[in-house]
Amino acid sequence: YLKDKLHDRLDQEQVLRYRDMERYSRHIEELYKEVRSFRHDYTNLLTSLRLGIEEEDMEQIKEVYDLVLKDSSKKLQDNKYD
């Protein structure tokens, strides 16, 4: 009887660990997608800044800078990064 109980308990623990690992994997995948998106956006922002600098267009540079500040403050305040 005790052996069966122990076996059942171990099976339950294994199921819980498996579920936790699945949840963790999904979370990591979502973070990876966000990092890829960030890299893409960051590259575009740097390109926009470079073009503004090359054309000496201070208005464009200010717009890109303001956009970066606005977006980064929203994204980095998310609790999922804690």
Automatic annotation (TrEMBL):
<protein>
    <submittedName>
        <fullName>ATP-binding protein</fullName>
    </submittedName>
</protein>
<keyword id="KW-0547">Nucleotide-binding</keyword>
<dbReference type="GO" id="GO:0005524">
    <property type="term" value="F:ATP binding"/>
</dbReference>
<keyword id="KW-0067">ATP-binding</keyword>
<dbReference type="GO" id="GO:0042802">
    <property type="term" value="F:identical protein binding"/>
</dbReference>
